[in-house]
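Incident log, entry 3
Record: histidine kinase (571 residues)
Problem: checksum mismatch between cached and fresh output.
Input:
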Amino acid sequence: MASLRFRLVIGFMLVSVPAMLASAFIAAKLISDAFEDNVEQWLGDTSRFFALEIAEATQEAQRVAGVIGHRLEQSSDDHKMQRTVEREFAVLNSVGYDLIAIYRPGGEVLYKTRDFSSLTPLPTETSLGLFRIETDGKRWIMAGAVQAFQIGGQPANLLVGTWLDESSFGGIKVVTALEIRFFALFDGKPELVMQTHSDRAAVLPEAIRARLEAGEGGIFDSDADGGAYRAVYAGLRGIDGQLAAISFIGMRSEAGFFEQLGRESLFLGIFLLGSAISIVVGILTSDLLVRPLRALTHGVRAIAAGDFGQRVSAGGGREIVELATGFNGMAEQLGKLQELEAELRRKDRLSALGQAAMVIAHEVRNPLGIIKTSTEVVRNRAKLGGAEEKMLGYVIDEVRRIETLVRDFLDFAQPKPPVKVELPLRAVIDRVAAIAAPELSRQKVALTVEDHNDSATVLGDPDQLYQACLNLVLNAIDAMPDGGMIQASVRATGESVSLTISDEGPGVPDAIRQEIFNPFFTTKAKGSGLGLAKVQTVAEAHGGSTSCVCEPGKGAAFTITLPRAQPGASA
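Fresh output:
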């Protein structure tokens, strides 16, 4: 009686009469068609999502190729370009790009990460799409892009791409209830690249391939693999405009079909007999079974639109529950991949920013020294009036301020690795309190410390941790120009030790809370924007993290969390 199918059969047996036979036949046909339409639509949406993943891979390759091509164009000589190529190619290989090459429009290859040959002519203009590549005796289908640029005034092209293989479709493969196959076409013959279930032989019907080659879009086949699947075939065009690959997205024919048929037949039978009670039962069961499919369809569309936080409830029959569980797993994996990509991009931006700051700082430091020395010599040797003496003093003070800013830039761009020793985090805040005592008194700010760490210690660099905590205390002082209270709280868990510094200032507006740890972001008139960025850098160098919690008008609380030193640990 726990089986929904069995209960529907018993219900039909109890209410059926000879007059229902004709209506049951009509209902079965109508609902079968409706279910086929729903499945076709859902599989079509999933097929488009599959194609979207491949399109995103080519677009990402185009963005990467554009950036690298621009950097190569800025190289002033062959030696500098060679170093740029080696550095950028190494980075691209490390993040998963399988083939990078530079070639002339005539076909001459200048640089390449591996020996390869293209089975189709390589483009001479900026473009993106699917490439058919042969390397090491094996043929690949590649999602990539070509960027046209100039080398020494001569045209050249940069090719960047990644293989479409088993590892490329990790997100959609999480949906275990679906059969997903990916065929690549070489010399007009399909080769299987990926298959989620290997219990059946993957065969691509010749008629399907011919229809896709003729330009037809997605093809729904309700009798795929001899009736084992309901599936959608979709073609993907290569960089030459020819059919390069074919995707197969299928769902087993028995997955929920008879449940749908019984539910709707019961609803129509009850409608014809005019039984009010049976109508209510039919409506309830209809809602019970249709809702999961609608939720799945809505979820796939939301994921395709970029909403990776979408989840669906696991309700309905056993097959639908399995499908919903797989979908939720896929969405979670895609969300993690998106977060990882965002973090990698942030670190890449910080690295580029640090390199630029380091170059600028080195270029500025020497002229500043000359200006400072020359100004001091003039002030000491020349007989100047009071106004001129005061003006030269301003110059020297501003040069010193710029020197301090340059030194901060260099410290941020080239942070020293922490020299770790075991120490209590309470000792760090006590040192800060002692050093900052005169400033705290002058600003009419009181600093109190609450210690709930249970004698816990961390492995850390005392000087770096001191600098990070001092930055937070100074920020708290700046947030309270009329004085107030700073609360420092040290707490420990079994795995970590945290230090929270909170103030009574106006807090951090929601609009900028995501940016406050970015380097060079500041709301102060004379701030460098490196204080909180250095705090985060120090915490990450120690294997920890930073966070900010605040309520508007009730102050801000910044927390540094570090791993707790385990018994027997050493620096």
